[in-house]
Amino acid sequence: MSSLDIANSFDLVSITVQSLALEGLLKSGNDLSLQPGLAISHQQPDPLTWVFRLRDGVRFWDGSPLTPDDVVYSLNRHVGEKSTSILAGYFGKVKSVKASGPGEVTITLSEPDPFLPYILVFSHIHSKAFAAPLGDQLGVAGPKVNVMGTGPFRVTSFASPSNLTVERHPGYWGPKPAVAKGVLNEITDTQTRRLAMQSGEIDGAFGVPLADTKAWSRIRGAKIQSAPGMQVAYIAMNVTRPPFNDIHVRRAIAYALDKQGYIKAFLGGQGEPATTMVSPQQWSGVMDPKTARDRYATLPQYPFDINRAKQELAQSAHASGFTQTVEFADSNPELGKVLVSLGETLKPLGITLNVKEVPKQQWLTHKRADVPPGMQIGFYSPDYADPANHLEVFYPSGATNNSTTYSSKAFEAALAKQRVAGGKARVEPLMEALKIAMTDLPYLPVYWGNQVMAVKDGLAYDGFNGLFYFQPWLGNLRRG
Amino acid sequence: MSGTSVRARRRRAARVSGRWFTFAVRRIAALVVLLIALSFVVFSLLYLAPGGPEQALLGTRPATPALSAALREKYHLDESFLRQYWLWLRDAVLLDFGDSTRTGRSVSASLADRVGVSLFVGGYAFTLAMVTGVPLGVVAALRKRTVLDRGVVGLAVVGVSAPAFVTGVFLLYVFSVALGWFPGFGAGEGLADGLWHLTLPAAALALSVMALVLKLTRTAMIHALDQDYVAFARARGVPERRVIVRYALRNALVSVITAAGLVLTVVLTGSVLVEVTFALPGLGSLLVDAVENKDLPMLQGLMMVIATVIVLVNLAIDLLYTLVDPRVRIGSAA
After folding, report:
1. CATH topology of domain A229-450
2. Which residue of A88, A196, A365 is in closest CB contact with B50?
3. Can you give the residue ranges of every domain in chain B?
4. Residue A268: band (very low, low, confident or very high) from pLDDT cuts 50, 70, 90
5. Which has the closest alpha carbon to A124: A24, A55, A53?
6. Contact A92 B184 (CB under 8 A)
7. Residue A207 falls in which region: left (phi positive, over 0), alpha (psi -120 to 50) or beta
């Protein structure tokens, strides 16, 4: 946990801690739906204007009431060209945030942004009177606690970034959590984390590595829980660079992916073969995941079939094969195993994969290069539960995570269409976009990885979900 | 003794302490030069390494060009290389190493918070390595080429061959999970709790350097026990314990202290090997974190602290030689 200010620390560990203490205007529910948070309701008089009505009776830990000024101050930190907030990228379409009356805040946009409500879940509201004098020291670890929120848990100490304690906030507006006090430790070494769970020193752990779930499930006195995957493992290919500019080569590799095998061998079964970049869970806000899964069956499919891989390669300009270096980040060792296994499958076709482990930063730099590598493997956790999330960040030309140089007018038209359509009307254009994506194949989705946690016997965690880190999750814990 | 007047003795003492003083001053001046050179090398290497701190912060999250530009300005990344170094150096001489790009906290405050844990683990590991290594080395020398000697040396070699993070996991499994004697992570609070928490990490670290102390003590002792003055002492009927301690061990100590200096720098800087395994908030885990996140200000600050520690430890060891062995003099060549 590097800091309690999301403007500076937008990593999973930090967010997990911030979400106990700080709240946004909206909340993420256990069913992944959006729910009222510090704002009780919102309206959209026109596509560029959002009006939020604040909840009455919300108090910060020091007893002071939440005011529109606090909201305006907190959100404006991410707005504007000069903002150095990590969230500034998400607030790119926000023109202004203003108090528009007692208990009311209005956000004006420069162009429509259907994702705004999701972003407001993790755009935390701070007490202006407390935060403003701190400046860039807001949320920083130190001898005194540098944060003041409205969340159900008050931070009582955050002396060092590896250790934080919380206590129930007695003046919390929502239901009273069963947990009165919590001690949060960051144990980065996964073996040490497992041994701490095994010795009973800790009551629960997040971030159970998918590759180690078997060892974790054998711990006596604890059980593991998993939430269906929203994280996607994928292979990206540079569609303007030989040999991957040839669709037959991309298809050949698609048919050579033994997704079920990887999940069984490398994830301890904690995942689902991915047929698109968008996991069915991501559809929660639009339609139920089961229906989404059924619809996916009508999209182009690439089942594991070595003969079809051979046929595709034979039709390509590289029928005798080629040699390619592929990098994976050291933070995802299971992806390295996938590549090595894929390499074995491709060997008889004359394709040699040189698998290379690189530091995460190097992987990122190469991914963002003007000429991205021919082939790369990656893993992405969702920012919110919306089917357009991954489509927006991976496919349009110029998108932050588009490391394939892919650019398709038809895809972008379909994506634009769903942006203005509301509710169920988004389904058809979204499916259209997915169909184009899975026909052109700049990315090969490999699997949707589960989110796995462990909890001590005698405790129960209700409603564990793929976006638990945006929730005040400690409140979901009870005896049982 | 009778021929030396009190005044002459004082004069000699003053001369010796004056020599010590100039020696120490010269070494500290060399340290300053070393730190500047080192900071420049580290800065250059970080500059050349791919990716900047702004990319590390953004990760895979969406970034507008305006945001990248604003972050680059915040960390002076658009300035020329030399200007960036100058901006850093100007503040660093006033002991202001800037703010961590990852946590936003001042580097000096973060280092001050964490140096205690690392020094504690390092000091503890050093003590463990010395109090086990030296006696075992003496025993091995006295029982030269026996089963006991071979056994002790063999075990020590196993210890030095296994990296501290592997030994650490092994110790964790045995003493924390299976026996439940020690906690598995964290540094604890206060002295007693701290000792309890840091015993396993210190032991893991000590095991990796004990062999060095043991082997050097053994060799130096064997050499010392072969000397004529030991044979004479024995012939004169000096008690064996006195022969070993006052005659042999004292003469072997110069080598042992050389080893001690080495061991001390290794355990102080080697904490990086155990801190991540035991989730200790020390300088080692901070270093790993800073490297992973391209936290330039933090890395620079850490390098300065580590280099200073190494130089100061070496200085202390050199001064200690003269105390143990009066034949060693600090001369102009030192």
Report:
1. Dipeptide-binding Protein; domain 3 (3.10.105)
2. A365
3. 3-93, 114-292
4. confident
5. A24
6. no
7. left
| Out of A222-236, A262-276, B105-119, least confident range | B105-119
Per residue, what are the HEC states of B272-308?
Answer: HHHHCCCCCCCHHHHHHHHHHCCCHHHHHHHHHHHHH
Q: Determine the average pLDDT of the residues in B76-89.
A: 87
Q: Give the architecture (CATH level 2) of A12-183.
A: 3-Layer(aba) Sandwich (3.40)
**Under a CB-based contact definition with an 8 Å cutoff, are residues A205 and A197 in contact?**
yes
Q: Is the pLDDT of residue A170 over 50?
A: yes
Q: Which positions in chain A touch B183 (Cβ < 8 Å)?
A: 201
Q: Quick one: pLDDT band at residue B3, thresholds 50, 70, 90?
A: low
Residue ranges of A 241-260 with Cβ closer than 8 A to chain B: none
Q: Please answer whether residues A194 and A219 qualify as being in contact, where contact means their C-beta atoms are separated by less than 8 angstroms.
A: yes
What percentage of chain A carries pLDDT values higher than 70? 100
A33 touches chain B (CB under 8 A): no
Tens of pLDDT along A151-163? 999 999 998 888 8
- Phi/psi for A68 (5° steps) reads -55, -30
Q: Does residue A465 have a pLDDT over 80?
A: yes
Which parts of B172-275 are beta strand (E)? none
Residues from chain A that touch B186, judged by Cβ atoms under 8 A, are 162-163, 185
pLDDT in tens, B144-193: 888 888 888 888 888 878 888 888 888 888 888 888 888 888 888 878 88
Structure tokens belonging to residue B43: 């800065």
CATH 3.10.105.10 range(s) for chain A read: 229-450
Find the closest chain B residue to A331 by CA distance: B292
Mean pLDDT of chain B: 83
Global ipTM: 0.76
pLDDT category, B330, cuts 50, 70, 90? low
Residue A411 has pLDDT above 60, yes or no: yes
Instruction: Choose the closest CB to B51 out of A84, A364, A393.
Output: A364
Predicted structure pTM score:
0.84
Choose from A199, A220, A358 for mutation: most chain B CBs within 10 A: A199
**B114-292, what's its fold?**
MetI-like fold (1.10.3720)
**Cβ–Cβ under 8 Å, residues B253 and B224:** no
pLDDT, one tens digit per residue, over B290-323 is 888 888 889 889 888 888 888 888 888 887 777 7
